[in-house]
Write a structure and sequence with these properties.
Elements: H1 8-17, E1 22-27, H2 30-39, E2 43-46, H3 48-54, H4 65-78, E3 83-86, H5 94-107, E4 111-115, H6 135-148, E5 155-160, H7 168-181, E6 186-189, H8 197-205, E7 212-214, H9 224-230, E8 234-237, H10 240-259, H11 263-266, H12 272-278, H13 281-285
Parallel strand pairs: 1-2, 1-8, 2-3, 3-4, 4-5, 5-6, 6-7, 7-8
The structure holds sulfopyruvate and magnesium ion (MG).
Length: 289
């Protein structure tokens, strides 16, 4: 009897289709992705915001597709859970989307997510002047992405920023429906409100079989159980890992300088052995024997 190993696209598809709400967390490099996996999340979100931040740059289409793909490929080679790659606008026109899908699929991700903002884009939480491309233009990007993929299970998520732009739930639903008709395997609905009300309304009115993904960054008090009851299929904790790293690094380094040694931090930082484990050192040492 042969054992069929499920592909990453198939596993991501199953997470989205499962009756249990999936949980993904944002990562920015191989190590953070590995920690997402070890914590027990179902999938990694290769986040444009946090990958940009890890390069000391803002999330405004400064990095190129090659930069994001390199960071994402490092995650793929370290992780045994599916990666959903945040591919911004698809890095340009529908032609760029086709190149992006070929490149990311070849790199081994489970799927990609593209959003209906104008290229170059800025992060959803920056400023008030976010601009969307016309609905049909983005629907065509989705259709091109689906026509380009090789593995039929490869996942293409369509993200609408209609709520981010203050265009209201009707516009968000119209866009999401059109993207689903164009072939999207899931819809990501984003919001920057402090409460989840507009997301709950969107989910309540969503009338397609296509799964819905949510990102509770600003409406963080909305828990997984509530998201599940409201009908969300995947919840992404997009940037908490990076923000935790920023705080932990700043606190640790500050304390070392203030106290003149690392005594005060030793019990709060990972041991060398924990880092060796993350590096899978033992497996590599075998080659050296
Ligand atoms: C990201 O993590 O890069 C995202 C989510 O796209 S957000 O930063 O909320 O736009
Ligand atoms: Mg992003």
């Amino acid at each position: 009897m042969s054992t069929q190993v499920e592909s990453m696209p198939m596993r991501l598809r199953e997470i989205l289709r499962s009756s249990r709400t999936g949980r993904a967390a944002g990562a920015y490099d191989a190590l953070s992705a590995k920690l997402v996996e070890r914590a027990g999340f179902d999938a990694v979100w290769a986040s444009s915001f946090t990958i940009s931040a890890s390069r000391g740059l803002p999330d405004m289409s400064l990095l190129t597709m090659t930069d994001y793909l390199e960071a994402t490929s490092h995650m793929v080679s370290t992780c045994d859970i599916p990666i959903l790659a945040d591919c911004d606008t698809g890095f340009g026109t529908a032609v760029n989307v086709a190149h992006m899908v070929r490149s990311y699929e070849a790199a081994g991700v489970g799927g990609v997510c593209i959003e209906d903002k104008v290229f170059p884009k800025t992060n959803s939480f920056v400023g008030e002047r976010q601009m969307l491309v016309p609905t049909e233009q983005f629907a065509r990007k989705i259709a091109v992405a689906k026509a380009t993929q090789d593995n039929p299970d490869f996942v293409v998520v369509a993200r609408t920023e209609a709520l981010i732009c203050g265009l209201g739930i009707d516009e968000a639903l119209d866009r999401a429906r059109r993207y689903a008709e164009a072939g999207a395997d899931a819809i990501l609905i984003h919001s920057k409100q402090r409460r989840a009300d507009e997301i709950v309304q969107f989910l309540g009115r969503w009338d397609f079989e296509v799964p819905v993904v949510v990102v509770p960054t600003t409406y963080y008090s909305w828990g997984l159980d509530e998201a599940s009851r409201a009908g969300a299929d995947l919840v992404i904790y997009a940037n908490q890992a990076l923000r935790a790293a920023v705080s932990a690094l700043a606190d640790t380094l500050g304390l070392i300088l203030r106290t003149g040694s690392s005594v005060a931090v030793e019990s709060n930082i990972a041991s060398l052995q924990e880092v060796f484990d993350l590096q899978q050192l033992e497996e590599w040492l075998v080659f050296d024997r």
